[in-house]
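[job 4417] fold queue: 2 targets
>>> target A
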Amino acid sequence: MSNGSAFVKDLHFAGTAIWQVLLASVVLGAGLPVIFALGVRSLAWGSAREAGDGAPARPGNPLGKVLAVVLFAVVLYILAIGIYYIIVGGHGKELDFNGIWPSQVAKK
């Protein structure tokens, strides 16, 4: 194998790693706060609102509360997976995603 071919191979691996890090940072750095913000907005949509002129409060939409619970559950799940990933990595293992909850396997 020539020296130039090894350089191209290394460059490809570096480029792949950069895209993986970029994707993870966009999803977790911007996506998770957006999901949380949508949960807060849904919770506000689901709560009763008072009219400013002394009229009785309008009832909130129950779908807003259900949607808020689902969105908050997604945020908590992602946070739990992140903490679990850190803990498993500290014990010399890695995660295997074969279902909803990942399992620990020995590093390859």
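>>> target B
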Amino acid sequence: MFDRRGDIVAWSGGSDGTYTRYSSRIEHRLNSAPLLLLSSNVEEDNAVLTVDLANPGMVSRGLGSELVHVKLGNFCDR
């Protein structure tokens, strides 16, 4: 359901639409550019995914690399 960057990727899921009923794809981006993966961690019970991301360098916009930090926490309720 989630990739290591915390994005929801297309997944066939269960026949009842489990996990994809409301959202089939979500990508975290800044000004159309994918965020840089700093770290990701899944808890032992696979219920929580924590992801740390940062912005890529955007020289044309005057934004240096890794100035914006994004921390995502995704919880999967069974």
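[job 4417] complete. Note on B: Residues 29-75 form one domain.
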